[in-house]
From TrEMBL:
Keywords: Acetylation, Cytoplasm, Lipid transport, Lipid-binding, Phosphoprotein, Transport. GO terms for cellular component: cytosol. The gene is PCTP. It is found in: Cytoplasm. It comes from Rhinopithecus bieti. Signal peptide: none annotated. The keyword Acetylation applies. This is Phosphatidylcholine transfer protein.
Amino acid sequence: MELAAGGFSGEQFREACAELQQPALAGADWQLLVETSGISIYRLLDQKTGLYEYKVFGVLEDCSPTLLADVYMDLDYRKQWDQYVKELYEQECNGQTVVYWEVKYPFPMSNRDYVYLRQRRDLDVEGRKIHVVLAQSTSVPQLVERSGVIRVKQYKQSLAIESDGKKGSKVFMYYLDNPGGQIPSWLINWAAKNQSRTKQEAQNQRDLIQFSANPNTLQ
């Protein structure tokens, strides 16, 4: 599931905006995983891989949309709080900004790394200011696979944020991540479920970022 050259289309950004206004849960077997503190997390099982896609909807109180989007995009800040980051940086490749990210996995599992495009647009949709961030796996010749590290080739994320009309932010997030390798799918999904429960209980931007950064992190 690699992204072709040229980045994201306007339609992909519009789809994220649409889900922020009206969750698209019909027509598929999306299951409510947890609902707490104004946040609802749904998951959808992929019968072929045994892994789940996730959708998150809700309101983060006392955190402005602009601040939330800015902090989410700040890779340097993320390296300060995410103990699982081994390496994380942006690099210009073929005229596009690509993110390289290596994630520490506990022994005896191999670390995983990601190469993905990430784009942010601040949109005006019928008078509503919406911040949208899209990310998806890609491949570039400058960032080859490393020995002893498993390259994640199926990664996709969407994030849309707008004001809740008060001091907080209304949020939609979609997440799909297949870490590959010899990790049982039940273990990946168990870890994702438990981190979802703990991270989303706190209503602030750091908790949202931690969940969106890596819901498959084993703790």
